[in-house]
Amino acid sequence: MAIRVLLVDDQPLLRTGFRMILEAEQDLAVVGEAGDGLQALDQVRALQPDVVLMDIRMPRMDGVEATRQITGPAKDGPAKVLVLTTFDLDEYVVEALRAGASGFLLKDAPANELVQAIRVVAAGEAMLAPSITRRLLDKYAGHLPSGEEPMPDTLHTLTEREVEVLKLVARGLSNAEIAAELFVSETTVKTHVGHVLTKLGLRDRVQAAVYAYESGLVRPGAQ
Fold first, then answer.
1. Domains located in the chain, CATH noted
2. What is the 3-state secondary structure (H, E, C) of the chain?
3. What digits encode the pLDDT tens for the residues 30-80?
């Protein structure tokens, strides 16, 4: 079955471009479009898409609030949200991730990256490109913990190996890359990631990465 995609952007020309790219793929189907967050909510309820390609800055309701309502406790369907941001990295992207987005992508990303990102998110994974993540978190370093604040108590529920895994997730590494880094199997890494998400009450790897930075476990620019 094709992955059902809803396009949400206030620029019709961009929506047309995205539609042309996605409809060239046999496993992707654009089921609708919306020009703002309110329209997006209506379309999600009516069309039940698998993935919502969501712009941030839009009239009436922005992408952050729309994401919150689409992925929140009262959500009407299984839709995942993939946020689109400008080359400069929009200041609201972190808020969108907190609101429940499964990842973010630059608007000028190559067509193959857009297609792959939609497939990844539809499969239930998080789209966490290391280069974009690093630039985003470096940009907001001033808003993140300085290192002088005590780390949250929830971190103490993690084992030493789970903390290592969380740090590598925050760097944007895949399960395979983490397995190679720690000299363990990919299955073991998946188990550790699952434990981290459960213990910290997080939904996916994107929220885990944001948590790692906000808690002070990882510092922007650190290796």
1. 3-138 (3.40.50.2300), 153-215 (1.10.10.10)
2. CCEEEEEECCCHHHHHHHHHHHHCCCCEEEEEEECCHHHHHHHHHHHCCCEEEECCCCCCCCHHHHHHHHHCCCCCCCCEEEEEECCCCCCCHHHHHHHCCCEEEECCCCHHHHHHHHHHHHCCCCECCHHHHHHHHHHCHHHCCCCCCCCCHHHHHCCHHHHHHHHHHHCCCCHHHHHHHHCCCHHHHHHHHHHHHHHHCCCCHHHHHHHHHHCCCCCCCCC
3. 999 999 999 999 999 999 999 999 998 888 899 989 998 998 766 656 789
